[in-house]
Specification:
Order of helices and strands: EHEHHEHEHEHEHEHEHHHHHH
Number of strands: 8
Largest sheet: 8 strands, mixed
Strand content: 5-15%
Strand order of the largest sheet: 3-2-1-4-5-6-7-8
Radius of gyration: 24 Å
Structural class: alpha/beta
Helix content: 55-70%
Shape: elongated
Distance between the termini: 53 Å
């Protein structure tokens, strides 16, 4: 599986926790390519320094310069903080080679990834990548999404060595956009859970409420839940608005948080203004027509 001839030499641009954990798991899996790392702290580290010892334990050779990192790498995996991603790229840019993969997996915006791809141009093969789970929990099994003209090459070169990579788009920025849009769901879900569970706790029904919600979401495949919630809301937004207004009144009566509920009331009112019940007298089998109708209405109003 980890043949020396096919294992690219990897250079970690930014050698923090994520890079260290990925490198550790690669070595444990028998990876036979060279692993290099560069960070400003690591460039100054020597035997006895924490950064040096951590790199040694992970099987990574720290380089003193970005030039050395680029020279010794077939694939550069940038794992810098988002605000440092473009400065780090500019620092290494002149040392890149046209045949080299430059995989930017920093936590950054889609626009920043588009800018990075434009900067790289034909100096290297740019890939926009995003990690969708904490590396400290899943290590090498942390799912990557990748986009751009060379995303398939990144997948094909690293999947045999244990990385979980899914190509999600042809344009740089698509992978980072997916991560951020995914966060719109996951972080908003956390917010509504906090709000609803606070109310349940205040009312003394927390355990019953958590059990009921868990049962509901475990009994139905989530792709069906997505269709049911989007298509069903288009049809029934007027009735659901009345229910959410009652919900909002209850939360206020209890002194409970209501920010997410207020946002839901606003969304339902907007769907009514868009005339969704008239456009969808019954639930469509797909969410596509509902979303297309919302997009068209919003674009007309812009």
């Amino acid at each position: 599986m980890n043949d020396h001839a096919t294992a690219p030499n990897i250079g970690f641009l930014g050698f923090g926790e994520a890079a260290r954990l990925l490198a550790t798991d690669l070595v444990k899996s028998g990876y036979r390519g060279r692993l290099l790392g560069y960070s400003r702290r690591g460039a100054k580290a020597g035997p006895g320094d924490v950064a040096y010892e951590q790199a040694q334990a992970a099987g990574v050779q720290l380089t003193k310069t970005v030039a050395a990192l680029a020279k010794g790498s077939d694939l550069i995996l940038a794992l810098t903080p988002g605000k440092a991603a473009l400065p780090a790229l500019k620092k290494i840019l002149k040392h890149l080679r046209p045949e080299q993969l430059y995989v930017d997996a920093s936590s950054n915006s889609a626009k920043a990834m588009e800018q990075a791809a434009a900067l790289v141009g034909d100096k290297a093969k740019f890939v926009d990548a995003a990690i969708l789970a904490p590396v400290d929990l899943q290590g090498l099994k942390s799912p990557f999404v990748a986009s751009g003209a060379h995303a398939g090459e990144f997948r094909d070169r690293m999947t045999p060595h244990g990385l979980m990579i899914r190509v999600v788009g042809e344009a740089a920025g698509d992978a980072s956009a997916m991560k951020l849009i995914r966060s719109a769901f996951t972080k908003s879900l956390a917010a509504i859970l906090i709000e609803s569970m606070e109310a349940a706790r205040r009312r003394g029904i927390l355990d019953v409420m958590t059990g009921d919600i868990a049962k509901t979401f475990s009994e139905i495949p989530f792709d069906k839940i997505i269709r049911r919630y989007i298509s069903g809301t288009a049809v029934h937004c007027e009735r659901r608005l009345h229910e959410m207004q009652d919900c909002l009144a209850l939360l206020r009566e209890m002194g409970s948080g209501d920010r997410s509920t207020r946002a839901t009331v606003g969304t339902l009112r907007e769907l009514i203004r868009m005339d969704m019940p008239a456009k969808f007298p019954k639930e469509p089998e797909s969410i596509h027509p509902v979303l297309d109708a919302i997009i068209a209405a919003r674009d007309r109003a812009a």
